[in-house]
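can u do me a favor
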């Protein structure tokens, strides 16, 4: 069950095919395999063995996938870190995971202050701190045979963004990632002729699974982009004949705004996940680029892909699709845990070989979300008569106005129809009379006087009054994570006196 076997099989079958490529260089599967074997030898020489944890804090560069498979080859566990994290955040994860090694760039190493970290540093590029040069890892004897692993042994600890409190390390097993990537290959009808464009950060499990597991096991290639610049992305999608774009809603909106031509003839499909994609953005994107966007979903704790709109079947716009083969999904009453009827809103729960082992060092938090083998996602949604699932909100983002439920996504879908709108986020603001009122934060193309009142008036023509924003705040830019997800918690924290939902 060692995931390194996936690379070995593909390298044997397609040694000369391109595995990973960027604007400067490319690696064939054979070269990629040799690099991972050599790096595994270097890690082993540093004392890394089965069950140890190695942290990677890198952007989307070619050493990332090679190091990942090297870690797996020696039976160790991958821990991923966002390169934008500050010293205190990094220190917490390194301590919580007890990482034996930290691999990062020289420039990042210089900025980090980790006086209590006792592990080894491996650094790409120049640094003044005491560290092992990345290239030195290649001087050890390579590891040819992957370390034998049981299916339920942990191979990755991926820290969630931490909507409340500190991040939690989701422990993903060999079975979790092997199963989820296998069913995803079938769901997207992957072929060896596909080239995926990956600008989503590899430290996030969405890109990690698709780029490093799905594509590798299917013999496809991946173009790695370290930073999202809309015009550069459009150029590289065309120049490198990319067939599939994996993104989050913010990226689709940015590409739509940046493109004048819409000429991406090789692009057979796009995959959107991580957050709901506004229907208006989907329709405009598909019309302009003459391609199809397939929405899916899944949390980190589910490895992460749980559902997907069929690429060769019925697609329901606005839906996250149907469960992948071998995965069960259902809707339960959040208060009673009872399964509820088709069409009724409740919490989405998931069961299957993709569901994680638990949170590292946090058995109480694990018990809150794992009940009778079902993972409780925290998403409010419903399922229709055809088995397609829909997300209407996060449980913690549900707004209750005078006792009536308001789903932020419903309001946001209307706001996205406003002509001048670029992006929006709807949250609840504490109100002494109604309990909460709807507060919309927006980015707009051009600011004008009375824009706030215009937006409120626009929504009142399309929504019941209690669902409409009572307040509208125009921001130059909404706060976003590196994956492009709008950070609603940050917006809520800025609302004085608002009691955050835990």
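np, heres the sequence
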């Amino acid at each position: 069950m060692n995931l390194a076997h996936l690379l070995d099989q593909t390298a044997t079958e397609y040694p000369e095919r391109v595995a990973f490529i960027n604007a400067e260089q490319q690696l064939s599967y054979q070269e990629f395999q040799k690099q991972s074997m050599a790096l595994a030898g270097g890690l082993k020489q540093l004392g890394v063995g089965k069950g140890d944890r190695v942290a990677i804090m890198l952007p989307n560069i070619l050493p990332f996938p090679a190091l990942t498979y090297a870690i797996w080859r020696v039976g160790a566990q991958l821990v991923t870190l966002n390169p934008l994290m500050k010293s205190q955040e990094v220190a917490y994860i390194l301590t919580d995971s007890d990482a034996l090694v930290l691999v990062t760039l020289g420039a990042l190493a210089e900025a980090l202050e980790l006086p209590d970290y006792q592990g080894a540093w491996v650094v790409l590029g120049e640094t003044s701190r005491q560290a092992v040069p990345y290239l030195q890892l290649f001087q050890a004897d390579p590891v040819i045979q992957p370390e034998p692993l049981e299916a339920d042994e942990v191979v990755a600890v991926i820290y969630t963004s931490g909507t409340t409190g500190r991040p939690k390390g989701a422990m993903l097993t060999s079975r979790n990632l092997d199963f989820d990537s296998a069913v995803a290959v079938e769901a997207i009808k992957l072929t060896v002729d596909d080239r995926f464009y990956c600008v989503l950060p590899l430290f996030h499990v969405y890109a990690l699974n698709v780029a490093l597991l799905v594509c590798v096991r299917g013999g496809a290639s991946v173009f790695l982009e370290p930073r999202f610049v809309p015009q550069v992305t459009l150029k590289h999608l065309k120049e490198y004949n990319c067939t599939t774009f994996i993104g989050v809603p913010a990226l689709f909106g940015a590409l739509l705004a940046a493109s004048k031509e819409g000429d991406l003839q090789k692009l057979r499909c796009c995959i959107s996940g991580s957050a709901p994609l506004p229907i208006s953005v989907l329709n405009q994107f598909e019309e302009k680029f003459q391609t199809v966007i397939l929405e899916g979903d899944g949390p980190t704790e589910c490895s992460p892909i749980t559902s997907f709109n069929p690429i060769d079947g019925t697609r329901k716009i606005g839906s996250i699709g149907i469960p992948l083969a071998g995965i069960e999904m259902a809707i339960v009453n959040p208060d009673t845990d009872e399964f509820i009827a088709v069409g009724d809103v409740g919490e989405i729960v998931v069961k299957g070989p993709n569901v994680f082992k638990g949170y590292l060092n946090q058995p109480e938090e694990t018990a809150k979300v794992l009940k009778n083998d079902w993972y409780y996602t925290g998403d409010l949604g419903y399922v229709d008569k055809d088995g397609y699932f829909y997300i209407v909100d996060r449980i913690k983002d549900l707004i209750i106005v005078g006792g009536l439920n308001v789903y932020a996504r419903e309001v946001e879908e209307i706001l996205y129809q406003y002509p001048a709108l670029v992006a929006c986020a709807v949250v609840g603001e504490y109100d002494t009379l109604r309990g909460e009122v709807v507060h919309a934060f927006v980015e707009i193309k051009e600011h004008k006087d009375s824009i706030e009142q215009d937006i409120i008036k626009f929504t009142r023509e399309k929504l019941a009054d209690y669902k409409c924003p009572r307040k509208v705040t125009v921001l130059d830019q909404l706060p976003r994570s590196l994956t492009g997800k709008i950070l609603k918690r940050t917006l809520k924290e800025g609302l004085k006196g608002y009691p955050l939902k835990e």
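The domain at 398-493 is CATH 3.30.300.30 (GMP Synthetase; Chain A, domain 3). hope that helps!!
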